[in-house]
Amino acid sequence: MPRAGSTLLQSILNLNPEIYAGVTDGSLELLFGARGNFSNSPEFKAQDAELMKRAFSGFCLEGLTGYCNALIEGTGKKNVVLKSRGWGINRGFIETFYPNPKIICCVRSLKDIVSSYEKIYRNNQHLHDPVKDDSAARGTTTPKRVDEWIHPQNTIGRALERIFEIINQKYDDKILFVKYEDLCLRPESEMVRIYDYLELPYYSHDFDNIEQTVVEDDSAYNMGEGLHIIRPKLEMKYSDADHILGNNINKWLFDTYQWYYNKFGYKK
Q1: Are 27 and 64 in contact (CB under 8 A)?
Q2: For residues 15 and 13, what is the distance between their CA atoms, to the nearest angstrom?
Q3: Which of 89, 131, 157, 190 is the most exposed place for a label (fewest CB within 10 A)?
Q4: How far apart are CA 52 and CA 64, in angstroms?
Q5: How far is Cα 234 from Cα 47, in angstroms, rounded to an integer?
Q6: Closest CA to 205 of 222, 220, 192, 223
Q7: Do 59 and 98 meet the contact criterion of CB atoms below 8 Å apart?
Q8: What is the maximal distance between C-alpha atoms in the chain?
Q9: 237 Cβ partners below 8 Å, 6+ apart?
Q10: CA dihedral in degrees (165, 167, 169, 170; nearest 10)?
């Protein structure tokens, strides 16, 4: 989910001298590009289908391995954690060449995610936000902006749809879901859980002094400034979603996406 602590988690992991964890990564897009060419190029279609399938799987595995090895050589680390919102929903594709991938999915109370988007919008009035179009009366009120962000073609809605499909396909038990609230309130126990899932030795982190070594250029996302800035001390901030969004919007979110609230144990 967006605004659910993935930059925070990557920053914590990246402070481990044996883990490279960076910003949003594009290696999955390289695999998509290769899959598109493999599916559509006559050079592959004209050959033995089963042999070409094996060859393509080898290409993907060695390509991703080479990508990660270059990151390891360039950073002196031993392990790589690649950040992308697409890994979970594409687990079936990944498993065709990489058995049992380790996928972590960060989640957060939905009303706090939406509230965070609204606060970013309000705090960046000096910049044009594509969610708002006065001529079309689109995104001109808080409820309208929520409708835009929650649409499946936008980031929040797309993430919700993907998690719903992961649950529907019944492989959610293979993915480690990390609640932002738990990471803030019980960081050590959550990090122990994460290291256990990754099958890596636990590294003792200082949660009062988290250096931001993962820096992302926010201008790429056309949402304003300060999207990926983390605080040096890990602590839970008071939720102001009721104040920012109002009771009607929060009730609508709860009623519409009750499966999400139930899955992760969130309250209205």
Answers
A1: yes
A2: 5
A3: 157
A4: 18
A5: 55
A6: 192
A7: no
A8: 62
A9: 184
A10: 170
Where is 123: in which H helix or E strand? helix 110-123
The per-residue pLDDT for range 53-97, each reduced to its tens digit, is: 999 999 999 999 999 999 999 999 999 999 999 999 999 999 999
Half-sphere exposure of 63 (CA within 13 A, CB side): 18
Question: Which of 148, 3, 179, 147 minimizes the C-alpha distance to 85?
Answer: 3
Contact 87, 94 (CB under 8 A): yes
Q: Where are the beta strands (DSSP E) in the chain?
A: 19-24, 79-83, 104-107, 176-179
Q: How far apart are CA 99 and CA 85, in angstroms?
A: 19
Which tokens go with 96?
Answer: 């065709």
Q: What letter represents residue 106's amino acid?
A: C
Q: Do residues 33 and 256 make contact, with C-beta atoms less than 8 angstroms apart?
A: no
Helix axes 187-198, 6-14, angle to 10 degrees: 70
> Which one, of 95, 113, 89, lies nearest residue 2 by Cα?
113
Tokens at residue 19, please? 């883990």
Residue with the two structure tokens 């890990």 = 234
Alpha-carbon distance of 16 to 13, in angstroms, equals 6
pTM of the model: 0.90
The identity of residue 158, as a single letter, is R
Q: How far apart are CA 38 and CA 142, in angstroms?
A: 44
Task: Tell which wins on pLDDT, 112 or 228.
Answer: 112
